[in-house]
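Table 4 source record.
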Amino acid sequence: MDILYLLIPIAMLLVVLIVVIFMWAVRSGQFDDLEGPAHRVLTDDEIPKSPNDTESKDDEGEKSD
């Protein structure tokens, strides 16, 4: 029974700490855009080059030899 005098304040401290951390995360914008990163994974970062661009560079390289 004496252990409850220790465990209850520790539990209350943990609850307060968790609430403070959660409020900090909300205010700093951690939960603003939950779907954006999931959609960004599916998009390409680079613009694909057309086959004509790579052939013209190869032709120029052969002419300079």
